[in-house]
Design a protein that fits this description.
By secondary structure, the protein is α+β, with helices and mostly antiparallel strands. It has one domain: RelE-like (YaeB-like fold, 2-Layer Sandwich). The protein has two helices and five strands. Strands 1-5-4-3-2 form a five-stranded mixed β-sheet. The longest helix is centred in the first third of the chain and has 11 residues.
Length: 84
């Protein structure tokens, strides 16, 4: 498996900074297992993938050419899809 560089967009980093330490570590652990992981789905109508971590959703894109995973947004289950 080749390693991917992970880039956080502003909205995703802002959400992570607001979380308590235990929750932040749980989310980081799930993110750094990407692109392999459990409960990942491709969203219809756009080039995004969704990773489920409890009640939180992590939306991200993968650029296979340069091996970059861009974390677009992280939020609660009901709020994360409103931008897309």
């Amino acid at each position: 498996m080749q390693t991917y560089k992970i880039k956080f967009e502003k909205a995703a980093q802002k959400f992570l900074d607001k979380q308590d330490k235990a929750q932040r570590l749980r989310l980081y652990a799930a993110i750094y297992k990407l692109p392999d992981g459990t409960d990942i789905k491709r969203l219809k109508g756009c080039n995004l993938f969704r990773l489920r971590v409890g009640d939180y959703r992590i939306l991200y894109t993968i650029d296979e050419m340069v091996k970059i995973i861009s974390i677009e947004n992280i939020d609660n289950r009901g709020d994360v899809y409103k931008r897309y």
